[in-house]
Structure formats: C-alpha cells, structure tokens
Amino acid sequence: MGSAAMDAAGNIGMGFNIASANLPAGIKYTGRYDGDPLGQMTVAETSIVEGIGVQTFSNRFGDYSHLTMDPDNFTFWHTAEYFSANNAWRSRVAAFTLSSGFNADIGVSNISQPNNGLLTANETVEVAIRNFGLSAQSNFPVELYLDGNLVATETFSGTINSNEALPFTFTQTVDLSTSGQTYTLEAKTALSGDEFSANDNYTKQVRHLLASDVGATEITAPVSGSGLGLETLTVTLENFGALTQTNFDVSYTVNGGAPVTETFTGTLDAEQTANFSFAQQLDLTALGPYEITVTTALSGDQDPSNDSVSTTVTNLLCQPNLNCSFGDGFQLFAVNEINNPSGCEGYGDFTAQVANFDADTTYDLTVTTGYGDQFVTVWIDFNDDFSFTADEKVVNNYVIAPGQGGGSYTETMPLTIPAGANPGTHLMRAKTNWQAEVPENACEETTYGETEDYSANIGGLSSDDYLFSAADLLVRESDNDQFDIELRTTYQGPLYFALYNTLGQQLKFKTLSQSGPDLYQIKLDMAQAASGVYIVKLSGPELTTFQSAKLIVR
What does the alpha-carbon distance between residue 279 and residue 324 come to, in Å, rounded to a whole number? Predict the structure, then answer.
C-alpha cells in the first residue's frame, strides 16, 4: 500500500479510533452519521494524513480510495491515495469506529470442519466462536443445523474474552455419507441478551465428492473474430472428485466430425483446475461458425454429466473500418449497374448492389473522393473463399489526385476482368488509402481511407438474367431470429431458394412461386440455428445470376 503507519495500540496501517485526540493530520473524514437524527457527526472531524493537493505536472488528485466494513460490524477500514511533498504517490490505511460496540455480542465466525471430500455418516463439526462484544461470555448455547434441521444444541462452557475467537467442537456428529450430495451446515450461538443477532450464525456448504470425476468446464481459445486460420484449442479441465487424477484422455470434435484425442499427462488434484492445449490445431480458415465440443474420458468417471463443454467460434468476414472523416474514401462508386453515391461509412456493406461483367473485358470504374492522394484497389473474390488475393485484384492502386489535399475529385479508371474468371456472383471489395498503397491484406486497417463491399456477377447474361440482377432483395429481421425475405423483380419464372452456412454447406432448399405481382416471399425461422453468419441465395433454373444476402443469427 505504499506508506503505512502504526498507532499506539499497535494496529498496522494507521489503525485508530477516529475520535482519538492524537491522530496525525491528513486525509479528512467528513459526512453524516445516519444514526444521528439531526444529521450531525458524533465525533470531531479529523485528518489521517496531509497531502499537497493536485499533482503539479498533471492536475490530478489521488485516483483511488476504498472504504469497507470490518466483520465486527463496527470498524471502518479506509484507504486513499495522495501526493506527498515531492509529488510522489502515497497511500494510507486507517481504521475508525463511530460506536463503542455492544456489551453482549457472540457469534459463529467460521465452520472449519468438515470440508469437501469422501465423507462418512459420522462427521465431526468444528466451528470458531467469536466474542464481538465488550464483555467476556461463558456457558451459552450453540446450535447445529443440517439442511435446515436442528440436530444438536450444546453448551460452550469455557470463557471467551472480548474480541477473542475460540474453537468449539460439537459432540454430535452429522451424516454426510451420500456420494455426490451437497449438504448445508449452519452453526448458531444463542446467547441470552445478545444485542446484535445478525452475526450469530455461520453457514457452509459441504459436498461429498465422488472419488473419480473429471470434466471440461470452459473453452478459452480460440474466440470468434476475423482472420482465423490454424488455431490452438485450449480448454479448462477440472477435477470434481476427491482423488488426484493424471493420464486421462481429452478429445475434441468440430461440427460433429471425427474426434481428435490426446492425453492430459499432468497432475490434477481434487477440486483443482488446469489448462490443456491440444497439440493438433484447428483449421478455422473458412468463414463461418464452428461448433467445438471438448470431452474428457477418465476411466471409472462417476459423473459423465460434466465431462463435456461446447462453444461456437465464428470466423467472421473482416470489415476494416477506416477513418474517412476528412473526405478520404468513396463518395461515389460507379461501374455498370452500380451507381452508388455514399457518405463516410468507414466500412460500407453494399453487397445488395450487383455489377454484371464478362470475362476478359475491361470496364470503366468512376470514383469520387473528398481528399486527394487516394490510392484505390478493388478485388473480386473469384473463388468465393472470402479471402482477397493478389491474383483477384481488378484495380491495383490507382491514384486519384496525386499530391492534392482536401476537395472533390472524380476520376475514371480501368477495371479489368481476367480471362477465365469463374462465372457467377462473387464478393467485390473496394478500398482506399491516403498517401500510400492499399495493403495487400484486404483486412488491414489503415489510418485514413474507406472500405466498401459490393457484388460482381461474371458470365454471359440472358435477358432474364438482366431482369433478375436488377431485382430488389429485402430481408427483415424480427424477434427470436425470424426473417422475412422479399424479392421484387419483373422476372416471371420459378425461383430456387437456398440457405448456406459460410462453409458452403447447403442447409435448406425450396422452390418459390410468385406471392403477388413482381413479388416472391419466404419466411425463415432460424431460432434453432447456431449463432453465426448465413447466406441466402435466390436463383432461377435457367439463370446464371443469383441474388444473395447475409443473415446474422445471434
């Protein structure tokens, strides 16, 4: 605690009664004493230690203070931080009382025996009795309860002085012999004329442990986030039993797949925990949720209900949020069917907007920005792995208004779709960066710039494809993960609805007919689905294009 002191009674840390006349000056105690109906303090205001006020070079007072009550229910313990004459941090601890206490006040302050373990039908109960009062006491009753039932009333026949704590052992034993059961023990004094009954009793729960019982309680790593790859799986193991355990198997599964089993070779004592990290790493490279379950396999385990623990870890699509408050970034992004004037989003999800492209063709991309020296890079995720690589760049660090500062700048640049580009609809990411090239890692956040995501459809389009690509897809979320999906389009044919997780696994499939003029509708109940990101796709039997949207199940 830094600087501390001792009073005349030998109490460490400035222990004293606040009414004492010989207190050192310093930290002041002021306030109301609620026991005084007039709101006046019953003791004089005193100081604990003097500080110099604020710190001269930072204009700060001491940052920390704490006041708490002693178990005797009369003594206040206070500590505060202050500055000494040389501007050094210091702390003082003080104890003070506003009342002299009660004359007759006895209570049980602890139950020391029995403790959790392999218990019997004849367990001895040992307690500590404390005299909180000012007068010595003797020959008073002490009561013992088991699960709320009085089992014994015995007499403490010795003498216990003021502020003294003495052990007391009941002659009556208790039956705690049922394996796996938790018992509630209560010991209580019954001193005639006791002036404060709130501290008379003490309660303790005691569990008859199973001999052999280990389990997994928490998966601590990895956790959900973006950019996950090969990850180390770490779990907390606990010995719920009474016997020390070692050399037992621990296994994990991912999304219900084949288990990976390894051996915990450490020593796990009774009621202790240990962290265990698997040597074989998880592959969480693909975006989406992963249901991970860890299970222990101790030979002779007597309680399998606590063997397993599960969690969902989601590899999220990164959404780098950049600072565009000075005008950096996109104020217009226009190519083919996309013509998107926008404000400063930092990160903008415009994936509902689709541009249609053909392979081995160059298109004009027009960008408006509010600040010069903007480097622009655009990727199209041709292989749909949610990872943007160098060979997927369709615009590579085009510089708008080099050397310029604030202002409105509009430039048109070439956007080239390579020959052999995979047909279909893909994610298109556009990023800017000020005065430097956009990083190769599309997830990296730079100081100034912006990120916007769109959709790009690659392939020869029919007239129906063009109608469908101009459709308006709307997803509404209501309580309990219920989704209403509407597609408004002049396309007239049948539609296929499909739901995928981000591992690419198809979870639902349904054929849709029109619900009304130019309208397709479907209600989707995701209340039983694991939390994470899902993809809805709508397409037709003769279409090469599709409409897609992301759902987030919480």
Answer: 43
